[in-house]
């Protein structure tokens, strides 16, 4: 019996897998993974002391009972996930995209959970480690799985689809992000399109926003015809006006089974309309009743610094500082200016991982904010500061500097947008707004 057979046999007895000894429980299988700043092999002994049934290592010097040696612990983890995935005869929905994939995933889960037992990616565990761990955490009685897949480099999605093996595919959108890894917008499209490639090879179906010309072109280039379309025009959807009494996204629908239906959400941002309609379409495909879909969307409240709305003692605050790239930044600013309220303050943090395009893209964001009539702009981070000469914005190198400023100069009676990449740590100033 080879190493993987031994591991899989133990997994079938107690399907618990971990890569972190801090969360280990007796009977778990511990995989010793390596990273830039750590080596899980060093914790192999500790895992056994804590009761691990097996410890999987790729360091030949580690020997002992319940130690299983493999050439590469990460590849072994991924292969174990593939082995288990092949035993699961349930629909797998795979999704990726430049923006909105985590919110869309959570909306899909909310809708499907009204009828089915759903297993899904927790948070944004969507990479080469997170996807196999997600699959290995799926209970055998699950009825549908929703797997989010992220990418920073070419072939990332190709690798993840080979593990998740989705029957259905959804790309939320393709935009300007991670140029350091992808090299160009065409690189983004090619990598995200690897999801379409896999689903076509498996004779599955893709859910596609028919109003997104990039996605339509990507499907046409691959000669994909097994599609289920959604979108504002496709579904006769009208986005309703926002004000202080109705700050969240609301949609009136006017076609087919949805004619006359109004969808209410607890999401901020017109850019979430496509994410909501994707969840609606997937719910309908899986025979979730319309009223259950409506109730699920209304009940979902984001809690992860994505598309959140906070009412504080002094202001109304739009919190969208989990991530940022040129596409999502433009959408956030455009949506922000549509609010029919008084004084507007935009707190914008650097967009990271843009490579050689960084200076140009940051300058475009500043120009957009000024053209769209934002009353006050505060820019945080080296990239914004380096291109922000004489633009009428208040500049800060770090969120700590911004926090010091806000303690002395509080913002009051305003609508405030907080948007930036997670590395800028704009969440640190939320308590001061």
UniProtKB/TrEMBL annotation:
Binding site for ATP: 97-103
SUPFAM superfamilies to which the protein is assigned, alphabetical: MurD-like peptide ligases, catalytic domain (SSF53623), MurD-like peptide ligases, peptide-binding domain (SSF53244), MurE/MurF N-terminal domain (SSF63418)
Domain Mur ligase central: 96-282
Keywords: ATP-binding, Cell cycle, Cell division, Cell shape, Cell wall biogenesis/degradation, Cytoplasm, Ligase, Nucleotide-binding, Peptidoglycan synthesis
GO process terms (BP): cell division; cell wall organization; peptidoglycan biosynthetic process; regulation of cell shape
Domain of life of the organism encoding this protein: Bacteria
EC number(s) stated in the UniProt entry for this protein: 6.3.2.10
Pathway annotation from the record: Cell wall biogenesis; peptidoglycan biosynthesis
Keyword ATP-binding: yes
Record's catalysed reaction(s): D-alanyl-D-alanine + UDP-N-acetyl-alpha-D-muramoyl-L-alanyl-gamma-D-glutamyl-meso-2,6-diaminopimelate + ATP = UDP-N-acetyl-alpha-D-muramoyl-L-alanyl-gamma-D-glutamyl-meso-2,6-diaminopimeloyl-D-alanyl-D-alanine + ADP + phosphate + H(+)
Record domain Mur ligase N-terminal catalytic: where: 17-68
Cell compartment(s), UniProt: Cytoplasm
GO molecular function, a single term: UDP-N-acetylmuramoyl-tripeptide-D-alanyl-D-alanine ligase activity
Residues covered by the Mur ligase C-terminal domain: 306-422
GO CC list: cytoplasm
PANTHER family given in the database record: UDP-N-ACETYLMURAMOYL-TRIPEPTIDE--D-ALANYL-D-ALANINE LIGASE (PTHR43024)
Functional note: Involved in cell wall formation. Catalyzes the final step in the synthesis of UDP-N-acetylmuramoyl-pentapeptide, the precursor of murein.
This protein's name: UDP-N-acetylmuramoyl-tripeptide--D-alanyl-D-alanine ligase
Organism: Acetobacteroides hydrogenigenes
């Amino acid at each position: 019996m080879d190493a993987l057979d031994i591991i899989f046999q133990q997994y079938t007895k107690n399907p618990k897998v971990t890569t972190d000894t801090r969360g280990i429980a007796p009977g778990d299988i511990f995989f010793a993974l390596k990273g830039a700043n750590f080596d899980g092999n060093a914790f192999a002994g500790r895992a056994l002391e804590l009761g691990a049934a097996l410890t999987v290592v790729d360091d030949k010097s580690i020997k002992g009972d319940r130690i299983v040696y493999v050439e590469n612990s990460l590849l072994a983890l991924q292969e174990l996930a593939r082995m288990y995935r092949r035993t699961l005869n349930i629909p797998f929905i795979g999704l990726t995209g430049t923006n909105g994939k985590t919110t869309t995933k959570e909306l899909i889960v909310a809708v499907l959970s009204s009828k089915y037992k759903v297993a899904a990616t927790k948070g944004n565990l969507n990479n080469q480690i997170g996807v196999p761990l997600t699959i290995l955490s799926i209970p055998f009685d699950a009825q549908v799985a929703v797997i989010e897949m992220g990418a920073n480099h070419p072939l990332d999605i190709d690798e993840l689809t080979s593990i998740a093996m989705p029957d259905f595919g959804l790309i939320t959108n393709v935009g300007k992000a991670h140029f350091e890894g992808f090299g160009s917008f065409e690189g983004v499209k090619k990598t995200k399109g690897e999801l379409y490639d896999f689903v076509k090879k498996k004779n599955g179906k893709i859910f596609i926003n028919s109003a997104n010309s990039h996605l339509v072109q990507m499907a046409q280039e691959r000669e994909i015809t097994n599609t289920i379309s959604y979108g504002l025009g496709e579904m006769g959807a009208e986005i309703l006006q926002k004000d202080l009494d109705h700050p969240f996204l609301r949609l009136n629908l006017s076609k087919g089974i949805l004619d006359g239906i109004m969808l209410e959400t607890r999401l901020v941002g017109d850019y979430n309309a496509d994410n909501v309609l994707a969840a609606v379409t997937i719910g309908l495909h899986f025979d979730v009743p319309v009223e259950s879909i409506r109730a699920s969307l209304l009940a979902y409240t984001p809690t992860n610094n994505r598309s959140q709305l906070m009412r504080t003692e002094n202001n109304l605050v739009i919190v969208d500082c989990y991530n940022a790239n040129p596409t999502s930044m433009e959408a956030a600013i455009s949506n922000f200016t549509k609010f029919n309220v008084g004084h507007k303050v935009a707190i914008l943090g650097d967009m990271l991982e843009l490579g050689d395009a960084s200076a140009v893209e940051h300058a475009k964001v500043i120009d957009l904010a000024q053209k769209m009539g934002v009353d006050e702009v505060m820019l945080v981070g080296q990239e914004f500061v380096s291109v922000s000469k004489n633009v009428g914005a208040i500049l800060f190198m770090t969120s700590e500097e911004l926090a010091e400023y806000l303690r002395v100069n509080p913002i009051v009676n305003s609508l405030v947008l907080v948007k930036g990449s997670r590395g800028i740590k704009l969440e640190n100033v939320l308590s001061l707004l």
